[in-house]
């Protein structure tokens, strides 16, 4: 069991180093960051849509004025 843990730990460290080396390549880095920027833009659009939809729902509910 301990040897399995050590194997997994060493493997994880090796994978992290490989990912760092991969992501630091000059031709890869701009592509990755471009995708992160696109994801952030979509996240912002999604947040704005959610806020707008919630505002419309609240406004519609208030106009119905069920509480009279």
Quick synopsis:
With about 70 residues, this protein is an all-alpha fold. The chain has helices at about 1-25, 30-65. The mean pLDDT is about 80.
Name the beta content range: under 5%
Q: Radius of gyration in whole Å, from Cα?
A: 24 Å
**Strand and helix order:** HH
Per DSSP, the total helix count is 2
**Can you give the helix content as a percent range?**
over 70%
Distance between the termini: 68 Å
Number of separate strands: 0
Total domains, how many? 1
Low-confidence stretches: none
Could you explain how this protein is built, in words?
The protein has 68 residues and is mainly α. It has one domain (2-64). It is built from two helices and no strands.
Furnish the topology, listing elements before pairings.
Elements lengths: L1 H22 L5 H36 L4
List keywords for this structure.
68 residues, mainly alpha, 2 helices, 85% helix, elongated
